[in-house]
Amino acid sequence: MVVVDLTESQGISYARIALGSLPRRRGTGLPDREVVRRAAAVDREHLARYDRVCGFRLTDALPATYPHVLAAPLAMRLMSGADFPFPLAGLVHVANRITVRRPIDAGSRLDLSVHAADLRPHHRGQQFDVVSTATVDGEEAWRGVSTYLRREGQVGRRDQGDQPPGPAAVALWRVPARVGPDYAAVSGDHNPIHTSRLGARLFGFPRPIAHGMWSKARCLAALEGRLPAAYTVDVAFKLPILLPATAGFAAARTAGGWDFTVRSAGSGRPHLAGSVTG
After folding, report:
1. pTM of the predicted structure, to 2 decimals
2. Between β-strands 231-237 and 91-100, what pairing exists: parallel, antiparallel or unpaired?
């Protein structure tokens, strides 16, 4: 495996993403390449802004979703490469799994790594995983697996799957339009489908949509204080949240942890379904 070491966080603009979407010769398999960043420090002011946008309490403990933000520039660098088989534009983030092996303090230095794995067929195209890890003092403390779908057909729809009614909502969330640009500012994900009505329409959405990882983070913030020190949280992203919106959050205890959902307050259609196991 080829290792690309980034000495500092290096983002990628959506102009470059657009250029990467132009027809060009691509490989047929995932690249045997790992992008790493060593001794990444946490900016506490940035962490506080992230906590506020997602609803977390302000503490020095990193939320489970925060290392995903730190690793995101590495993932973008990986997926924007000429050896990556799919253009970034049009990929759909359909699921995300995070495993917290132990709490991470904001004073820690993180060694981050990202690689792609498990290209596989899907009834609507092809799926693959982007695997990110955060190591502290030589020990893996966090792992994230983002599953993407390269779809053949319309881009503006997502599979709902078979969804049982689920528990009644325990909270109603008023999700303002500013969630799109606010989360873009703290995550670095400035995809125009989240920040621009025109950009959203180009991809088949009538209005900008909330970032999927914002909705996952918001769910974990709602469960804050009731989660173990080490756990795995799985989420399947269903229908996007069109901004602004009112959504119902529901959570129920299980033998292993929690099941939770986010649904449209009006139609009851699912935006997200997830579980926590510890």
Report:
1. 0.90
2. antiparallel
HEC assignment per residue over the chain:
CEEEEECCCCCCCHHHHHHHCCCCCCCCCCCCEEEEEEEECCCHHHHHHHHHHHCCCCCCECCCCHHHHHHHHHHHHHHCCCCCCCCCCCEEEEEEEEEECCCCECCCCEEEEEEEEEEEEECCEEEEEEEEEEEECCEEEEEEEEEEEEECCCCCCCCCCCCCCCCCCCEEEEECCCHHHHHHHHHCCCCHHHHCHHHHHHCCCCCCECCHHHHHHHHHHHCCCCCCCCEEEEEEECCCCECCEEEEEEEEECCCEEEEEEEECCCCCEEEEEEEEC
Q: Under 8 Å CB-to-CB from 224, ≥6 apart: which residues?
A: 56, 57
**Domains in the chain and their CATH numbers?**
2-277 (3.10.129.10)
Asked if 111 contacts 26 with a C-beta cutoff of 8 angstroms, the reply is no
Comparing 55-59, 81-85, 134-138, which segment has the lowest mean pLDDT? 81-85
- pLDDT tens digits, one per residue of 87-127: 988 899 999 999 999 999 999 999 999 999 999 999 989 99
Distance CA 158, CA 241 (A): 12
Cis peptide, bond prior to residue 244, ω within 30 of zero? yes
Is pLDDT of 45 > 90?
A: yes
